[in-house]
Known about the structure:
elongated
Amino acid sequence: MLAYRAPRLxxxxxxxxxxxxxxxxxxxxxxxxxxxxxxxxxxxxADHADLNAARKIRRRGLALLxxxxxxxxxxxxxxxxxxxxxx
Length: 87
Ligand SMILES: [Zn+2]
């Protein structure tokens, strides 16, 4: 018998994610160097701008899940997100 667990969706506020550092949390417009480039003015963390924003949004989602008392590593959706972001 196959068991299927539906993925859990979490609504995350995306505001300023493209200008917020996924490493230190500093938000500054100057960190968004171009459409594709992110370099934190506070800590120097550099990444593709879309990946940096995706990591920041992921953290916001994990914080929401933790706030609801769920273990983030126990959900298939979070494990899949971890796998994709690590690739
Ligand atoms: Zn930073």
